[in-house]
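Collaborator request log, item 7. Partner lab (contact: R.S.) asked for a structural prediction of Epoxyqueuosine reductase to inform their binding assays.
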Amino acid sequence: MTPADKHAQLIKSIAKRLGFDFCGIAKAEFLESEAPRLEEWLNRNYQGKMGYLANHFDKRLDPTKLVEGAKTVVSLIYNYYPEKQLPHQSEDIKLAKYAYGADYHDVIRTKLTEFLEVLREEIGEINGRSFVDSAPVMERQWAQKAGLGWIGKNSLLLNREMGSFFFLAELIIDLEVTPDLPLAKDYCGTCTACIDACPTDAIVQAGVVDASRCISYLTIELKEAIPDEFAGKMENWAFGCDICQDVCPWNRFSKPNREPAFQPKDELAGFSNRDWVEMTEETFKRVFAKSAVKRPKFLGIKRNVEFLSRPK
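Returned to partner:
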């Protein structure tokens, strides 16, 4: 067994111990095939008002510009699929499953910090950084390159054993590690369930999403008024959206997560439409104190809830 093989074995054992469901390894190199795709996506203004996505173009494609001397990208999967779905009635106001509990950035960042610490204890000083949706890293592309799945028609990474209800995280390190083989096959086949189900027609072609039409973008990232054209099309989503995942056949393999921090508070579990409509800023701060729902702030959530009652 070569040192690079041993490093791969060690990294995967640490990942398992820290509760990650899957761990894949890829060589840190320029994502040449992604450059024209990213450029076209930006040129079509599919990023909407998320101007930051046009920044650091080179860094998004080249991990050595994020970590000097980078040799390896470690991709990690962490399950967030809930045991019970909220709300209990389909006509009630909804929020994306990933936001039921504590903010995933905080939960996973703590694990990644420990991951690097353990790695350094076992191997010695290495240069590296950890990422969880926090920097210009093309996480789905790296996860595919590391053999963790393929990019579905809804542009999300799909894994044959657990679907897509999971977070992705990365370690970019200057350690030589034996890479995994990328998954070459697309297992979506002729299925178009996600494209057909999207109420705002955000999936413009297989694997390409016009973010400016996506309900997640409209309810979280957009800071101004939601355009009138989406009135009556939001399907009661007040924060994020799971439609394209809920209809995906691969998500029949989803299993409840084992992370206590992702369990919803009792108060949130009992939230009714009336609670959403009458919610005060004090209630918002209490219920969503450590939640990703804080991102659009109280006024953003109120805007979303009010928009849901708008007629077509």
